[in-house]
Amino acid sequence: MDKRHISKTQSGVVLIVALVMLLLLTVIGVAGSNVTGLEEKMAGNMRDRNLAFQAAESALNAGESWLASNTFTCTPTSGRFNPRDKDCNSGTAETSEVWDSITWASTDSVAYTGVLSNLSANPRYIIEDLGCLPAPAACPGVHNYRVTARAIGGSAETIVMLQSIYQI
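The structure assignment produced for this chain is given below.
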């Protein structure tokens, strides 16, 4: 067979195969970069949530430390409440929990000002007097307090709220 005859019948096929292969490699590369970008966002969000969680834990510990060394008096402007009673009226139970009805950025809560960095705002806490066990008539007995801490991470959308029951 003549070499000129073979080259005329196969012209252009290699070019099409090469272009298809190049297109496939491009699609794989773009998909890989999209996955990498998404993973970076996920890692950043997890870091921000972890930062807010640690800040809320610090504020929770500060509230518990305050209880250990102070006498509790219901004072709304100092972050100390009765349960479901954000005005300390003792008897007027509200329909929502205190931590849902206060303004966290105001004097309704206590700011924790320990050494924390990269936060949008200082974490804050409140303390609620839950009363005595087994019943209020049994006081003095084991007294329960609920400490609620709220922290905002590096972005204002990352909010973590933690609670603990502290007994004295």
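Interim note for the steering committee: The chain has a mean pLDDT of 85. The CA atoms of residues 22 and 76 lie 68 Å apart.
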